[in-house]
Amino acid sequence: MSEKESEKMANDRIVVRAIEAGDEEAWNKLWVQYQGFQKIVMPPEVGKTSFARFLDPTVKLWGALAIDTETGDAIGLAHYLSHLTSWHVEEVLYLNDLYVTEHARIKGVGRKLIEFVYKHADELGTPAVYWVTDHYNHRAQLLYTKVGYKTDKVVYKRTGY
Ligand SMILES: CC(C)(COP(=O)(O)OP(=O)(O)OC[C@H]1O[C@@H](n2cnc3c(N)ncnc32)[C@H](O)[C@@H]1OP(=O)(O)O)[C@@H](O)C(=O)NCCC(=O)NCCS
């Protein structure tokens, strides 16, 4: 089997689905890894609150996991939310977090997670999706330039928050 064929087989094993109640432990492992990548440690109540919100149908904050169907392992996550905007009648989606565990990278998992978010955005009737990344995160941008376009905006924050 060629390298390309075996990569495709590996990619076919990956399924992205909405987070479910039984996922908390598997999700939390990825969440902790993601915080390590972001060089931040969040208090446990942040994770607990976000996870509960993913499951709450009245809250427009969602979580998705990429699952390797051969091992059952969760290997990636995406978190996204919907909000009003003065620029459109419909709401827009903000992709808050995206993470693929190290050994599963450059196999199309990140792309699958973003495609899942796009599909959900279309289903919700809010197809506009945006996100931010660090200007030095070249690896992520290799993916982002294939699924979106780079804007000229610069992000500012209120000092201290
Ligand atoms: C960014 C991240 C989510 C990408 O996930 P991934 O599963 O590796 O991405 P994919 O394999 O789907 O990459 C998609 C495309 O980018 C290209 N690409 C990604 N990394 C690449 C690399 N290092 N070299 C060359 N091409 C690369 C792939 O060729 C692929 O293109 P294709 O789909 O046309 O073949 C992952 O690297 C990650 O979790 N990084 C740490 C956390 C992070 O940076 N999160 C984003 C914060 S904004």
UniProtKB/TrEMBL annotation:
Record's GO cellular component terms: cytoplasm
Domain of life: Eukaryota
Keywords from the UniProt entry: Acyltransferase, Transferase
Keyword Acyltransferase among record annotations: yes
Coiled coil (UniProt feature): none
InterPro entries per UniProt: Acyl_CoA_acyltransferase, Diverse_Substrate_AcTransf, GNAT_dom
N-acetyltransferase domain: residues covered: 14-161
Pfam families: Acetyltransf_1
Annotated signal peptide: none
Molecular function terms, GO-annotated: N-acetyltransferase activity
Membership in a protein family: Belongs to the acetyltransferase family. GNAT subfamily.
Descriptive protein name: N-acetyltransferase domain-containing protein
Organism: Saccharomyces kudriavzevii (strain ATCC MYA-4449 / AS 2.2408 / CBS 8840 / NBRC 1802 / NCYC 2889)
Name of the gene this protein is made from: SKDI05G0050
